[in-house]
Design brief:
Elements: H1 9-21, E1 30-33, E2 53-56, H2 66-78, E3 82-86, H3 94-99, E4 106-110, H4 115-118, H5 121-132, E5 137-140, H6 143-152, E6 159-160, H7 174-184, E7 191-196, H8 205-217, E8 222-227, H9 235-243, E9 249-253, H10 258-263, E10 267-270, H11 279-286, E11 290-293, H12 299-302, E12 309-310, H13 316-327, H14 331-349, H15 351-364
Parallel strand pairs: 1-2, 3-4, 4-5, 5-6, 7-8, 7-10, 8-9, 10-11, 11-12
Length: about 375
């Protein structure tokens, strides 16, 4: 269960987890979105395996007390063995969890960010009660998220299961994406970096812009592609970025086939000020696209020296230095980083591995 199928890593994760779990013998999987699905604003339902039941509850914007009753009725009807909540959908299950006594079921909640970013203070207070009483099983998605959860929810039994993702494969639109990227390049030797993220303060594209503007002044043969939309609250930020957009940065908006553009890129970049464990990073690693990132959240534990480039801090000079280091690295070294990224993904960050760990948790929570 999640609030909505918006264009974000947590939402992609939920779809991929459902698609993997529905392959398990004896599993019937239902994905619940509190908001009704809007094709123009949400991820396409074509991403969801047809065997997964999809249910929406018609949530209104902002606090909606009707959700408590609707979730209660849904769970009474479904009689699930496991309820797995994500983002703030967990708040709205509290009533159902206390009222449903005619059948037992596991209650799992995953943090998709540092916990102080994942829920407001009143939400964390409520979670602490449900975690400490053993009503809900909390799960963290990376080392840094786990540390933040242990600090916030002391003495609660928190489990760490690292995020996973499906491996990246070209879609039927790959050649079209490739042609579009080739048209943006100055010549065949132009290096392409890609930022797959919504435009927001968190993702801090301002930092990427500043660094790209400097690299443009220095005559570096490099372009940056930004794939992602923005919410109405970030319209001013988006407009501001457009006004100061360097000639080597291109906004391509949201793309259903974002993975095709990733396959056409030389490096994956994140200039974020905070993160959990981005699915987009794992997707980049799965195909050997070298990451160049800021040292926040789960990025600290994954983007090691043998996988990519992690800046010393989130400042301009540090991130510019990391981009330059990648840009001027010898080709054999970059090939080694790419191979190490693929190996790390296969060993620890595939969705197959992630789903297996959740499957084990569901049974262990009996």
């Amino acid at each position: 269960m999640l609030p909505a199928l918006g264009w974000g890593g947590a939402q992609v994760f939920c779809i991929q987890l459902c698609n993997e779990l529905v392959k398990y013998p004896g599993y019937e999987v239902t994905l619940v979105s509190m908001y009704h699905h809007k094709p123009d604003k949400h991820l396409p339902l074509s991403m969801l395996d047809k065997r997964v039941q999809f249910v929406t509850l018609g949530k209104r914007p902002g606090p909606d007390p009707r959700m408590f009753g609707r979730i209660y009725k849904l769970l009474k009807s479904l009689k699930p063995d496991v309820v797995h909540t994500h983002l703030h959908s967990g708040y709205y299950c509290f009533l159902a969890y206390t009222k449903i006594t005619d059948h037992s079921f596991k209650k799992v909640h995953t943090f998709h960010n540092l916990v102080k970013r994942d829920a407001p203070w009143y939400g964390r207070l409520a979670y602490k009660y449900f975690f400490s009483k053993g009503i809900m099983q909390p799960v963290s998605i990376s080392d840094e998220v786990h540390k933040s959860a242990l600090a916030e929810y002391a003495n609660c039994p928190i489990v760490q299961i690292n995020n996973g993702s499906d491996p990246v494969k070209p879609s039927p639109l790959f050649e079209q994406a490739k042609a579009e990227v080739e048209q943006l390049k100055r010549n065949k030797d132009t290096k392409v970096i890609i930022n797959i993220a919504r435009v927001s303060k968190q993702k801090n594209q301002q930092l990427l812009f500043a660094c790209m503007k400097q690299l443009e002044k220095e005559g570096e043969n490099i372009i940056a592609i930004i794939l992602g939309g923005h919410v109405p609250e970030d319209q001013k930020l988006y407009d501001s970025l457009l006004e100061q957009q360097p000639g080597n940065v291109f906004f391509l908006g949201r793309k259903e086939n974002a993975r095709d553009y990733l396959l056409c890129s030389d490096a994956f970049v994140l200039s974020s000020i905070f993160e959990g464990l981005p699915i987009s990073l794992l997707e980049a690693m799965s195909v050997g696209v070298v990451p160049v990132c800021t040292p926040v959240g789960g990025l600290i534990n994954i983007v090691t020296d043998n996988i990519g480039y992690l800046s010393a801090d989130t400042g301009y000079e540090a991130y510019l230095a990391s981009l330059r280091a990648w840009l001027h690295a010898p080709a054999p070294h970059l090939r080694e980083l790419a191979a190490n990224g693929i190996k790390a993904y296969n060993e620890a960050f595939s969705m197959e591995s992630c789903a297996s760990k959740y499957n084990q948790l569901y049974f262990d929570a009996s």
